[in-house]
Amino acid sequence: MRKEIEIQIYGAEVICASCVNLPSSKDTYEWLQAAISRRYPNQTFKIRYIDINNPPEEDGLKDFALRVVDEDMFFPVVLVEGVIVGEGNPKLKAVYEEFEKYGYTAG
């Protein structure tokens, strides 16, 4: 049985200074959720939005949110199972490639 994977989107309400004219982190989260659901119908996955300015206290989530800030990463930063697949303006192809490593198939 295929593992249900988790995708995490780290972002902020304020658009990244280097990402002017790009969608907000929340817009990217919603866009990715819709695109992945269309690409992999009837295949479940978890998707989480983490605010880098107010991250949850959970192990790893707060640490990575601080890393995004400390390293001046372009956000949103998109991770699939802990692997960074995009920063600033994530590409669907990279996200899909990571999903398919876990056995997800396009429908």
TrEMBL record:
Pfam families: DUF1462 (PF07315). Gene3D superfamilies: Hypothetical protein sa0798. It comes from the Bacteria. This is DUF1462 family protein. It comes from Falsibacillus albus.
